[in-house]
Amino acid sequence: MRVAVVQFPGSNADWDALHAVRDVLGADAWYAFHKEISLGGADAVVIPGGFSYGDYLRAGAIARFSPIVSAVRGFAERGGPILGICNGFQVLTEMGLLPGALTRNAHLRFECRDIFVRVENDGPFTDMGQGQVLQLPVAHADGRYQCSPETLRQLHANNQVAFRYCTRHGDAPEGSPANPNGAVDDIAGVYNRDKNVLGMMPHPERASEAILGNDDGLSLFQSLRRHLGAQ
Amino acid sequence: MKANIFVTLKREVLDPEGDAVRRSLRSLGFEEVKAARVGKLIELELHGDDRESAESHIRSMCEKLLANPVIEDFHYEILD
Amino acid sequence: MKANIFVTLKREVLDPEGDAVRRSLRSLGFEEVKAARVGKLIELELHGDDRESAESHIRSMCEKLLANPVIEDFHYEILD
Amino acid sequence: MTTPENFPGEPDASAELARKFGLADDEWERVLSTLSRKPSYAELGVISVMWSEHCSYKSSRVHLSRLPTEGPQVVQGPGENAGAVDIGDGFCAVFKMESHNHPSYIEPYQGAATGVGGILRDVFTMGARPVASLNSLRFGRPDHPKTPHLLKGVVAGIGGYGNCIGVPTVGGEVQFDASYDGNILVNAFTVGIAKTDELFFGRAEGIGNPIIYVGAKTGRDGIHGATMASAEFGEETDSKLPTVQVGDPFMEKLLLEACLEIFATGCLSGVQDMGAAGLTSSSVEMAARAGNGIELDLDAIPRRTRALSPYEMLLSESQERMLMVAKRGREHEVFDICAKWDLDVSIVGRVTSSGRFVCKATPGHDPFDDAPTEPDPVVVVDLPVDLLTDCAPKYDRPQEARPDAATLVTLTDDAPGNLGAEMLRLIGSPNIGSRSWIWRQYDHIVGDGTVVRPGDGDAAVIRVFCQDTDGTQEKFLAISADCNARHVELDPFLGAAMAVAECTRNVVCVGAKPLGLTDCLNFGNPEVPEQMWRFARAIDGLATACTALGAPVVSGNVSFYNETDGKSILPTPTVAVVGQLEDPAHRLGLGFLNEGDVIAHLGRPSRGVLGGSEWLVQTMGSITGAPVGIDLDAEAALQQAMLELAQRQLVRSAHDISDGGIAMCVAEACIANGHGARISLP
Predict the structure, then answer these.
(1) Engineered SS bond to D476: which of B54, D41, D299, D581, CB 3.0-4.6 Å?
(2) Active-site residue (options: D54, D102, D224, D586)
(3) Overall pTM > 0.90
């Protein structure tokens, strides 16, 4: 498996993603600097967390004008698997590759702690089975997923919701602290219509080794490897 | 030439920052505050003085970058 | 009664966000953009219709909460 | 010798102007006699910042020399931008702590943010990649009207900067006390990793080598920030408003990546970040360390605002800027890497053999004018480098011991009846309760390195990746920052020693061996004999404890004049220690793990002494009683035993007894993993 990790000026979790995919999973992975125009024959692309362009104006708003982004758009249109983590998710919505938008957390503060998500639908990164509960960390200030009622209806109709925040036991009672940012319908991650692009706020790459607390996050990358192996 | 661009959240989008401002103002004794919404003011200084072309340029700046159409509206004013 | 409050960074204060907007607009081909500054627009809905008292209240809201006097200026407009 | 020219509108130097710039009358006299002429306006500005307490350490230098700075593991001691200790296999941990107290009181968000930005630069200017940060904060009483605003702003500022640049903020401490009502403390610590033989130093080496300015453009921010840090607060604080520096973490991230890439090429012979007193202190200190001179062409300084005078450019504290000395002929390598990271870069001068600091500028030249006047520079500053550094004033100020009327306060018979209620009151109080509201606003896990997170252990444990030609090794460091200023108030010697003991103990309790220590010595006005006595006694306490507990001082900072309207803060010698685990399996959290485990108390009980304790302060409303004190030999033995227990994996968890005594220690260990405990006191 060959994975390109996009590096915008201001990305700061690029090392986290490279380490998880290359050193922990053992795949071939490298940085794709934002000024480059090709992804170097990658099988999959990860857009990591961070503050691309300082997150000025809106998180991820300015990153989409970098040269590398046209290569990422082409890769997406050809059905290539793309994982946007945290800032990467924000960039993908600003690019229009994913529906909705990520807005300021409801409590208006940066939030960094472990949370739980439930796998809602199958896909290249989520073949571990519906209902599976994963413990993953979040670290963001603008993670509140928003979309119009019509978009929400389509997301459910096309099984595009990948993860929803929940408690340790997998349920999501109204108003429970399980939802760290007030996202609509407790949404933590969504796929596009063709189910090849996934954006999520939690950080699987920061929960990919037992020494860091738990390795539930590694299951996303293992799912990706199985998906690519099967192709 | 100068232009002021106002980017505001769409009506139906929850505005926690606006809520926080309303609650804080009321707790400071400004009971008359019924509602508050927080948006962005972007002040631009532009070369040239042709209002028509400025108008269309500003519109496309907003559509391309300054506002996120999914959740934000924009309006602007041009000052000589 | 409605009021719009504009909170902007003082002239001398570094505005990294404004710089980022200027550079991005220019890289998008809007060469005419000489400078950009990003501030806040706070829209308030107020009970009552006495402009004088509203004026003085708004001023003290800005001084107490809405603007940071160390690095920000403010101005406002009252709409019926 | 003729006085260099003033720029239009700049008044001639005078005793009155010198006083306004913060120089004492005898210091003004010394300038005249040394130069045997009057200084120019810009020269007076340069001298006043270089002779400020913050830059010259004039009231503390005579005492700092008593601190122990030697040890087999010490790679770099005090004197450079940061200190360094050996962590094996040719790698070292580079670290320092710096204070940003006064700017944070005026503008909490930006003051704290630029404090974080400044300490990060001090570390990566040595050629080290920053891997983790801590912060030590002090605020006034929780119910003081200003405290909530200051607390929210400082925490948001630290998070805003640290989270964006991607260095995890993994711990620290906060204490609330009335003495900080008008003068909060924000001490920022950062540790980075470097190869020992690839460390960079702040030296202007190589006559003729070009001086290169890299990073953000220069504005009027923070002018006279250095002297303000040495001016006590009072009514005229408002008049110092324009001294707020504003930080841009995104620019710093570009600067960090560009610098590390430039260092790797080997094209530099020296580098220093522009901190307090910006361009002046960085160029003068680099020249002094190399024994050379420097000539600067101020016309070439990248600027952000119009009509900047030499005085403003030399004293500006705009953030995110570095000064590099490139090997002659290899400047283009710096320019290429700066272009890759979209950074401003400009050759602004060269190294000379004159041993003098010479600056030139063209009056009226302003690149913002439509047709800037042709550069025709005149000399505006021409001063001997050593006048600004080694020959800066050095005082052994008078001291006056405080009569120690402190009597031993212990729990008498009429002890409070309901201990349970007392415990609940204590654990809910701001100085003991959980700090998660603060550290949850910090990204404490970026970098895939945080192995023991905030709140889970007595110190943070981070995994650092040490890369060299034959692959990557993982090493494990433990870091903690501590100080209980109340004990220092009661007895500066014992209190300072207890701070070192608590910090090294925290590091040992997570299974690590202490390697080195840095400090941030926050004190009142050194011109008040009693405050000077406190400082001198605290230095002796630190020195004795650092020697006894094997933690040499490798770097540090002094912040004086922390007082408002003549009332001084509690003497607060904050210390931070870096330790190393032999094996990650040795790491210990603080929470009880399994039902049925036996709880053991290690060390001599404190005989019920309550001096300076949180309980006594809450009960009596003031800080009284002799402090519990410390037996450093017993402490050293205790830490040795604890370390061995961890290394032989004979214990499951460990928690140090500090604020709140055994009661709070056991409560915290229970709460961590939701267990209970049955305790029988000896």
Answers:
(1) D581
(2) D54
(3) yes
